Amino acid sequence: MEALPIPTETYKLGFIGAGKMAESIARGVVRSGILPPNRITTSHSSALRRQAFESFGVHLLPGNDDVVEASDVLIFSVKPQVVKDVVLQLRPLLSTKKLLVSIAAGVKLKDLQDWAGHSRFIRVMPNTPSAVGVAASVLSLGGAATEQDGDLIAELFGSVGKIWKADEKFFDAITGLSGSGPAYIYLAIEALADGGVAAGLPRELALGLASQTVLGAASMATSSGKHPGQLKDDVTSPGGTTIAGIHELEKGGFRGILMNAVVAAARRSRELSQN
């Protein structure tokens, strides 16, 4: 049976799994005005998790079955190791009228579709900066998911950052770059701050400067329209302080190390998804 379009003006959104990522997405959706909180539902046994969602108006229901029944769009935001059991348990209720979305890392569309009994599924890879509205997310459409379905999910996840569409074959590499990448940048911020301390700065000032410098550089890279190499050249004067620092980074293999980190994480993602 052909899937019916989701009613974009009146649809209801449900979260299967009420963890921090689900909360970030729900908050973004409400904050941006895409959906009012009274059209979002979830369920959780923990009083703390229930309170987190209730604090901005989301309806808490007794169980996952109730969330499925109440929703047109369902986001599976449970841990990867339990997503199979959860989808299989709910399968009798997962008709093609419902658009299904998974944010479980490493779980392939083919498996999700087999477990659900149909292929109106979309896989999304968000990252942890969803919590502050600057995520880098990527989506891939399942076999029966329409372009309109994809646009609807892109709008939802666009409320917590930027989103791209890509073939699922790229998802291991995406995991290695944007999924794991925030940790690389936290390490860089910590190292920059340590460098500031080594050069004589108070710790608090060094950390604040390091964090804001990374934020500013990322903003320039995304908004200036310039290649990052050009931005680097713009701040690097002949015989100056910046080129002296860059020379040290190049001697240490800075770029190669970051490239290797992305490739290693992508390789590990591929290994985990094959288990």
TrEMBL record:
Biological process according to GO: L-proline biosynthetic process
Reaction(s) this enzyme catalyzes, per UniProt: L-proline + NAD(+) = (S)-1-pyrroline-5-carboxylate + NADH + 2 H(+); L-proline + NADP(+) = (S)-1-pyrroline-5-carboxylate + NADPH + 2 H(+)
Family (UniProt): Belongs to the pyrroline-5-carboxylate reductase family.
Entry superkingdom: Eukaryota
Pathway assigned in UniProt: Amino-acid biosynthesis; L-proline biosynthesis; L-proline from L-glutamate 5-semialdehyde: step 1/1
Recorded GO MF terms: pyrroline-5-carboxylate reductase activity
EC number(s) reported in the record: 1.5.1.2
SUPFAM superfamilies in the record: 6-phosphogluconate dehydrogenase C-terminal domain-like, NAD(P)-binding Rossmann-fold domains
Name of the protein: Pyrroline-5-carboxylate reductase
Main location class: cytoplasm
Binding site for NADP(+): I16, G17, A18, G19, K20, M21
Keywords: Amino-acid biosynthesis, Cytoplasm, NADP, Oxidoreductase, Proline biosynthesis
GO cellular component, one term: cytoplasm
Subcellular location: Cytoplasm
InterPro entries (UniProt xref): 6-PGluconate_DH-like_C_sf (IPR008927), NAD(P)-bd_dom_sf (IPR036291), P5C_Rdtase_cat_N (IPR028939), P5CR-like_CS (IPR053790), P5CR_dimer (IPR029036), Pyrroline-COOH_reductase (IPR000304)
Domain Pyrroline-5-carboxylate reductase catalytic N-terminal: 12-106
PANTHER family linked: PYRROLINE-5-CARBOXYLATE REDUCTASE (PTHR11645), PYRROLINE-5-CARBOXYLATE REDUCTASE 3 (PTHR11645:SF0)
Lineage: Eukaryota, Viridiplantae, Streptophyta, Embryophyta, Tracheophyta
Keyword Magnesium: no
Residues the record lists as binding NADPH: N64
HAMAP family given in the database record: P5C_reductase
Class of this enzyme: oxidoreductase
Pfam family, one: P5CR_dimer
Ranges for domain Pyrroline-5-carboxylate reductase dimerisation: 168-272
Annotated organism of origin: Rosa chinensis
